[in-house]
Amino acid sequence: VTFSELLITLSSFGRFQWMHVTLISLPGLLLASQNLLNNFVSGVPTHHCSLPANYSLPDYQVTFVTNGSANVSHLKTEECLDGWTFDHSEFLWDLVCSLRPLKQMIQTIYMGGVLTGAIIFGGLSDRFGRRSVLIWSYLQLAILGCSAALSPTYSVYCIFRFLCGMAVSGIIINGVSLKVEWIPTKERTLVGTLTSFFFTFGQLILAGLAYWLRDWRKLQVVVCVPHFLFFAYSWWFAESARWLVLNRRSDKALKNLHRVARINGKPINQLTLEVLHSHMKKEIDSCQSTLTAYDLVKTRGMRRISICLMAVWFATSFAYYGLVMDLQKFGVSIYVMQIIFGAVDIPSKLLALAALTYLGRRYSQATCLFMSALVIFANIFIPPDMQVLRTVLACLGKGFTSSSFTVVYLYTGELYPTVIRQTGMGFVSTMARTGSMAAPAVLILDEVFPALPSIVYGGAAVLAGFFACFLPETLNVELPDTINDVEEKW
């Protein structure tokens, strides 16, 4: 008898689960705004060289320019000696010419915060509970996100973005844990896929808000203020009963289970501490032996799985953020590009679900990576003036990387055994954070050679596609519970 079977007696996916999952998923509508905010805060503003205060344009120069009587390409150029004049109506920082790499540095620093948050808040949630850390993360993002709008300098803004990244990571990892630990095994895949659409719709919301506000400070505040509301209602959330029992707080776990049963209209007065412990005997026994990240690479089968998944997670995130973090390069309105990039996630996720069902996990994962690499490479050879074709290919690439994300989340959970699944997910997703940090930094390479970033992104996807081919297939295969199960099965 397992804890999942106990959840089924509480009405499997009843009124409580619907409310719980919906309320935890709602912030996802604005988490996309946090991840992609840099496109609308640090875009290159309209600018031109400043003229000296006492400068007047001679008549003969006016005639020269308007008549176009000279070959402009042969004229000598020089840097703006008197600085630049910028239009700050939309974008924040004057990051042009030699300062252009600092634009991507903001995103790298933010993703560094996401990585740091995954490490810090992941450990804190195991110690203090998922609910407590989730509540704190909402408050941290609300306060520091709004404070970022008051940043007087570039450095101060980067500090706030780093801390916001930490909070975003705390919301994601604890929100996911709190959702799945109250849902029976059978419903997890469907619920996980459906709730991922909150992030997809969030990308569309970001485009609408950015177009409507056209002011970076207002946009920064609007995407962060709602987290005060999320913080207010998050006190209603029920702490994971699994976590409570494993941390010797069974009385509280029993109280939460009775509350869930009452909300679902299925009171279970016969549920006692003894019954609860019998349902969780397997989890309690597995908790006796402490497993660490070293166990992910200690044995042959686990080592193969971990190395291949590290490559897949890194390349997927690397290529994804490489495509979505520089919308201005397409020569199309960044608001239109954000809508298109957000909308393409809808068919891509549905396609991923179909592929997972009929092709299996391994072929789906490898195909998504190879196709995204093919599209990225193809765009290198498209002339800059063919913007429509370049945009279409970029959307296809983004769609395939989104599909790759959908596949790898499910695939990873099926490959790692129950006793170390959470540690495994955290370990390989760290590679995704590393990839998202490296992606904006690689965009700086276009100063050396314009096609170089695309070559790097596509090359990483190809390499990861080959690694995916060495992963075992898990379609219709029973989930492993122990490391020995993995070694015997694969």
If you had to describe this structure to a student in words, what would you say it looks like?
The protein has helices spanning 3-9, 15-25, 28-36, 38-41, 59-67, 101-128, 130-148, 154-180, 185-195, 197-213, 216-222, 226-233, 241-246, 250-263, 273-279, 281-286, 295-298, 300-324, 334-343, 345-358, 361-380, 387-415, 421-442, 452-468, 483-489, and strands at residues 47-49, 84-86. It has 25 helices and 2 strands. It has a two-stranded antiparallel ribbon with strand order 1-2. The relative contact order is 0.12. The longest helix has 29 residues, at 387-415. It folds into 2 domains: 1-44 and 91-288, MFS general substrate transporter like domains (Growth Hormone, Chain: A, Up-down Bundle), CATH 1.20.1250.20; 293-489, MFS general substrate transporter like domains (Growth Hormone, Chain: A, Up-down Bundle). The protein is an all-alpha fold and 490 residues long.
